[in-house]
Amino acid sequence: MMSETSNQVDLFGLHGRVAVVTGALGLLGQQHCRALASAGASVVVSDLDRERCEGLARSLPTPSLGLCLDVTNRASVQRGVDTVLQAFGRVDVLVNNAALNDKVEAPELAAEASKFENYPLAAWMQSLAVNVTGAFLCSQGFGAQMVRQGKGSIVNVASTYGLVGPDQAIYRRPDGEQTLYKSPAYVTGKGALIAFTRYLAAYWGHAGIRVNALVPGGVENGQEPFFVANYAARAPLGRMAQPTDYRGAIVFLASDASAYMTGANLVVDGGWTAW
Q1: Distance from C-alpha of 134 to C-alpha of 117, rounded to nearest angstrom
Q2: Which of 90, 180, 202, 258 is least enclosed by beta carbons within 10 angstroms?
Q3: Helix count (H) and strand count (E) of the chain?
Q4: Which residues are catalytic?
Q5: Which residues pair with 45 in a beta bridge?
Q6: Multiple choice CATH, 13-269, 3.40.47.10, 3.30.160.20, 3.40.50.720, 3.40.30.10
Q7: 81-111 confidence digits (pLDDT tens)
Q8: Is there a contact between 160 and 265 (Cβ–Cβ < 8 Å)?
Q9: pTM score, two decimals?
Q10: Count of Cβ atoms closer than 10 Å to residue 206 Cβ
Q11: 269 Cβ neighbours under 8 A, 6+ residues apart
C-alpha cells in the first residue's frame, strides 16, 4: 500500500502517456521534452529539422519520436497526427511551444525597422502565423484525438508580454542607444494565445480536455550583458530565468497534478508581472 506522499508524487508521473512538443528544438522546447520524458512520457519531438528532432528523440530516456512538423501548414499537421497515432496509438499532451521571436529569429530588424511605426507587415503576418495559427492548427489536429480518447492536456506557452506591455527601456544600452523595440506582433500573438487558452478550456472542458497557459519570463541565453542587467533589475528575483526553471511547471500542467485546473495562466516569471 502506497503512502500518502507516494500518491502525491505519482500525480506528477506521465508513464504510458504520449506528449507532443512543437518548436521542440528551441531553447525551452528542448527542456520541455527532457522534463516530460523524465516524468515518464514518450515524447514527440517536433520541429522543422527532422534529423535534429530524431537525434533529440534518441537522447531521451523513454521511447520517443522525432517528427518534421510545420505548424503553419494544415496538411503537415495532419500528417503529424497520423504519424503519431501510427507510432503510439494515442496523444495525451500537446505543448504548443513553437514561436517566432524577433530578437532571435529576425536580427535584420534593427532598432529603426523594429519601431511600431515602421514594423514590416510581412514580419507581423509571419509571427502571427507561427505563434497563433500554429497553436490553432495543432490544437485542432491533436486535440480532436484527445476528444476521441476523452482526456488530454494542452499547454500553450505564452509570455509575460501576453499579460503586460513590454518595457522597451530594457533594450537600451547605458549610452542611451535603443538596440531594438520589442515586436508588436510577438506581444499581440502571446496575448491572443492566452485568450485562445480560455476559449479551448471552455469549449472542450466537457470532453475531459484541460487547456492551460504557461507564462514564462525571459530566459538568459547569451544576451549582451547590458540587457541581462537591465532585465534583472526589473525582476523582483533579480535575475533572468535559466532554461531549466520551467521544467517543473510543464510537468505539472501536463500531469494529473493539475487535474482540476483549466483555462488558467501559470505565471513563472521571477515576479516580473508582480509590479
Answers
A1: 26
A2: 202
A3: 11, 7
A4: 186
A5: 21, 66
A6: 3.40.50.720
A7: 999 999 999 999 999 999 998 764 455 567 8
A8: no
A9: 0.94
A10: 8
A11: 160, 215, 216, 217, 235, 241
